[in-house]
Amino acid sequence: MTKKESEVKYISSPVEAVFERLSDLRNLEGLRNRLDDPQVSAMIATQVPADKLQKVREVMDKLQFTADSLTVDSPLGGTVTLSIVEREAPKLLKFGAEGAPFPVNLWIQLLPTDATSSKLRVTVGADVNFFMKAMVGKPLQQAADGLAQVLAAIPY
Global pTM? Predict the structure, then answer.
């Protein structure tokens, strides 16, 4: 299993509030509407190359949310569904992927820093053979870092 961890991100909200928001994925559906906010668009533009910005918008528009899963069209064809497979309040959410070209999982770890703030780390893991490891290492790291950054920017 190849695992990549994000940097630790700090959030100005109590760990319980962060866990509550993230443990029901329908709460994230509102993020799609924020893409029209000029500040959000500017922040995304600093993280995503200009030639890929439209693709990010298209992907976000097609995301489907339920309480326990989110489904997205895969760039490789078909759909990929990330489903919550374990909740350990208020410190851990584990996800598994269905429809991915290889087994993928994701962890969101939360820890309190004090009564009004917390920290977050995202880990992405993929079960790939030795030859695929070099190919997927950088995209997995980018996924972990990007997701951590997005989750840290959400208002809780």
Answer: 0.83
